Fold each of these.
Amino acid sequence: MSTDPKPGGYWPEGYDRLILDEVDSTMAEAARRAPLIDRPTWIMARRQTAGRGRRGRVWEQPAGNLAATLIFRPNATPAEAARRSFLAANALFEALAIYVSRDGLAQKWPNDVLLNGGKVAGILLESSGSGPYVDWLSVGIGVNLAHAPEGLEGVPFQPVSLRGEGGSPVAPEVFLTVLASNFATQEEKLRQFGFARIREDWLRNAARLGEVITARTGREEVSGIFDTVDGDGNLVLITGKGPRTISAADVFF
């Protein structure tokens, strides 16, 4: 493993880096290390044996793809911590835009990045804490840099890879540096301008804004015009019965 903080480029000041050859999942490793961290730490694994995405879904990691988790103490309420998914998506979008035309990239609410209509990256947030502020927050990021997982059936957005869609090849360690730098920039934006600026940046690259989409919750399906994301990060749809605000759902279009 490596803890060298400057792998072939600018590494943001104040962040640590840990690279492991193999781990069950970087999210699980982050949870194990949470009591010991004293500053934000990126954990990357060259191979995961039990990677996972939202709602317990399996996240496959073919060789050459990125699996990484940032673990830190955000000094935030649970609601504020949850909105970091938009910050992470912005950082991920800008990192990918270095290697492929940004015209093909789009943000899908709540936490995916699409490339030419396929899913190229996903984000998973987990936090812990029983008081008014979270004790720690883990931001897990998976990116199909070199290969798209195969054999996935019934998924609404087929996985694609950066390289498969014509993007420039990039090693996971190098991409992590670019991603970490962009994340630090987004954190500084949040500190200076608040979530309104993060939301504005996210909406600029939102997929199907102003078009009809469907949000599937655990109880119902709601279709309507994707109007905006509100100040709490909720999806706002304009339906035949008026505006609907949705806090958690899978989105289809």
Note: The longest helix spans residues 172-193.
Amino acid sequence: MNIAIAIDGPAGAGKSTIAKLAAKELSFIYVDTGALYRAIGLCAYRNGIGSKDAPAILEMLKDIKVELAFNDKKEQIVLLNGEDVSSLIRTPEISMYASDVSAIPQVRAFLLDLQRNMAKTNNIIMDGRDIGTVVLPDANVKIFLTASAEVRAKRRYDELIEKGMDVKYEDVLSDVITRDYNDSHRETAPLKPADDSVIVDTSDLDLNQSVEKLISIMKERM
């Protein structure tokens, strides 16, 4: 029987980085579900479709294929119609697109089976916004990872600067706050902790401490 670990939390909480390192430590497959919504957001952006233009986005879904693949190092690769878009979906603009398109119920339904099927065939750590509440409600371990908006914005800002992007901290913080509101107030699968999840605040923890804490929780509950 495969083991599924669900990690939810707001934008910039470090879910992807921490989950990826924890998965490597446990020899699990890591699945970043947010990348799927980012890929759809990227496709809409490329086609000149507004992020909230639901009819046009749903029409677009008929002609696209989104996949998650893994390289020899078990690192996740995001494919949009066969194109590796892993590095193209991490800009602030595409982040906002992802937040908007993820609020469309039909988009979430479009991706649901893909996410669940991965959990059926692998020991996985899957992160997102509604993994423990909607995608994998029977996950063996559920963790809600969070931190203050200011800390999350600083982490995202540093990450973008390191990639050579010209951004301002104030703009990144504004995006984080806006996305928090959008994610927690959408009608379909809003961001919230599952009733049986462990809430972990990493505001005062560095990366190594955060990873150690999550691995400890996972081993205790598996």
Note: DSSP finds nine helices and eight strands in the chain.
Amino acid sequence: MSYYCSKCKEEITKEEYEYSKKKFNLALCRTHQKNNNSQLNRLSKHESNSKENMIKGRIAETLIEELFLSLDYNVFRYGMENTVPGIMELLKGVRSDVATNIRRMPDYVIQHRKTKEVFFIEVKFRTSEKFKKSDLPKDYPFENCYFIIVSKKHIKCITYKELMEGKEITLKSKNYLGSRKEFDLDKKVIIDFCKFALKFFKEV
């Protein structure tokens, strides 16, 4: 029995056929096996970067959650992926206004225990320490949301309204989280958490 490469139609050995079917689920000659290997490596690198970014985001979220808890706030995970486990997997490939709004739900709802004021919080990690209007999804529905940007050195904050006014977070901007009067935060505690951020993200 003869075996052939499914790409170039060149004849291959039985051993090459069996190895290729097992590894790639295709009959491939040695040349096309190498090509497939390089594609798999590129995919793995992309997947690796995606997972790395997800982990950075989770660390930033946890950092902010612990910061507000230590500053006498009630903190509730609000994103639908937290309240309904598995829903983000179910929504993959689904395109509708409802699905889109679920994906955009802020990460947290926080409430000051004394004043009882409530805020929507969205946490982002940015190596560049930059965040502007164009970084928002089109038709972002949560117009009363606060965006907290965590970087290696700073924790800054900007509102949806400020973004719409053309304001943005940059390396030189002074919109530090500790300067937001709405939250009435202890700047010393925030400095401690900035040190945590530097420790966690120093290799980024």
Note: Strands lie at 3-4, 11-12, 73-77, 108-112, 118-125, 145-150, 155-159.
Amino acid sequence: MAAPRLFVDVEFAEQEPLTLNAERSHYLCRVLRLRADAAVSVFNGDGSAWSARIEQADSRSCRLMIYSRQLAEAAPLCRLHLAQALLKRERQDYVLQKATELGATDIWLLQTERTEARVRPDRMASRLEHWRGVLQSACEQCGRLRPPALHVPTTLEELWPGFEDVSCYILQPGAPILTGPAAPADTALIIGPEGGFSELELRIAAAHGAIAAGIGELVLRADTAPQAALTIVRHGWRWAAP
């Protein structure tokens, strides 16, 4: 059985001990029920995975010994952006999980005119922390060593400075079928809420060169469309890494 994969948001070094925080310690010792001398694989998002063993199985302060680098994941050669209108809690988490599994390198959460969910300014920090945790857990599950970059929620109008020299596709029912670039290249998929983008938002996107694209005749839910769009683009790239 493969060693459990564990994301730790700290720096660590070969042949040195690593003491985990309470949340990570609880996960290893209570949820996974690992004991002393159990093997684990740890990574912190820099592109490397390291072999480690549990030296002290404490659910409040578990201590590992880091041994050697197991894997190295190259930095992306291009960026695959998903810009998605904010959804309600469980549906938003689901989109973040699947976007990670399907290779998105950057995730932008949009506050549109018809967005289902809003985040109060006083709760933004806690929501971002939660969403980053979702991305990290998805990396543990799917084998990625670099979580997608999560950007602070923004409006469609404020999105464009980050998309210079990027092929942008905005999903609209009835538009020509999405194909995307034939080879890996900086690409952005822009997906609205259940009610779609407003006419003003569509005009803003068109003025910035976004290409209207559709996914068949059926109207997809806002948490299904990102999976379909990312799959189409990655398949067009023959599943080559970005």
Note: The chain has six helices and eleven strands.
